[in-house]
Structures are given as structure tokens and as C-alpha cells.
Amino acid sequence: MLEVQPMDRRGYFMLPQAPEGAGYYVYGNVGGRPHTGHLAQYAHPSLMSLILCIEREWQAIDDRKFGIGNISIDGGEEYDGHATHRRGIEVDIRPVRKDKVTGQVARVTRFDDVYDREATTKLIQLFAWHVTVRVIYFNDEKVQRAIGGGRVRYAMRHDDHFHVELRWRP
Question: For 60, which DSSP code?
């Protein structure tokens, strides 16, 4: 059988890494090793569908790409000290930048001048509107208030990315 996308032991597919014309880019590493972020991007089918849906919606309102990081590794094993990112239903996404820098060097925190709060709010709102999303963690209080309803919450070490978690249905 011809394998189009790598699949892990659970039957989860790896997020496409560089699809032409996509509204996202990928970043990250596993164990501090460069160019290994793809090893932590196996997604449950529900999360994969959500990511690809949001990517299309995002492209309709903004021409910048958003960064997708950790999802889960093959088989859902623990890695890099994560208490989460084992079921394939969680994804880390970078805040939107004012410029169009992408890739590993595009890291941005909510404290940086290049951070675009308005665009980040719009991107998080796209995720927050989906019924499958259980919670989003991101530490920008203004974004939390703008979205409302307790949908976006504080969590330690969530200044340079937001974490989206789906409702779990085993």
C-alpha cells in the first residue's frame, strides 16, 4: 500500500509538514534535536480535521501563516516532560506575528513588539468556536477577556504558544 502520510502505531497520521499553499508552518523539536519536530505531530483524526478546517478559515481572513508545534509522538509515549500531548488531541500553536516570519526562528511571546494580539485573538477565536474544543491555554489576559466565557485560561509556560485541547472520546 502506498503511504501518503506517515502513520503511527495508533493509526494516527502525521500533520502534513509542508503542503504547498498551506496557511500554517510547522516548528519544534523532540529531545532538543534540531529538525525533529515532525516526530511530535501525530494527531487523532478529530484534531487533524480541526487543524485543517481552521487553516482554511484562517487563510480566508489573513495571509500570514500560523505555527503548529507539539501534538503527540508515535504511539502516544511521554516525551520532553509533557504531562499532556499523549493522546493526539492537543496541539500547541504560536501567537501570530506582525511580520511574516515563519519556521523555527519565528518564536514570539505575548511580550514581544512583533506579537500581533488582534490577529492572535482572531485565530484563537476560530478554535474556541468549535464544539470539539474543551479548553485553550494562553496567558494573554486581554485575549482571555476578548474571547470570554472562560474558554481561554492561564497555564504556566504558555506565553509563547497557545494550547488547544479537544474533548476526549476514546
Answer: H
Rounded to two decimals, the pTM is 0.94
For 84-139, give the DSSP string: S-SSS-EEEEPPPBSS---SGGG---TTSTTB-HHHHHHHHHHHHTSTTEEEEE--
Instruction: For 18-57, write each residue's pLDDT tens digit.
Output: 888 899 999 999 999 988 999 999 999 999 999 999 999 9
What is the phi/psi pair of residue 164, to 5°? Answer: -110, 130
> Is residue 82 classed exposed, middle or buried when 0-12, 13-18 and 19+ CB atoms within 10 A define those classes?
middle
Closest Cα partner for 54 from 24, 21, 90, 92? 24
Which residues, at least 6 apart from 110, have a Cβ–Cβ distance to it below 8 Å?
95, 117, 138, 139, 140, 159, 160
Q: Please give the single-letter amino acid code of residue 130.
A: H
CB 42 within 8 A of CB 12: yes
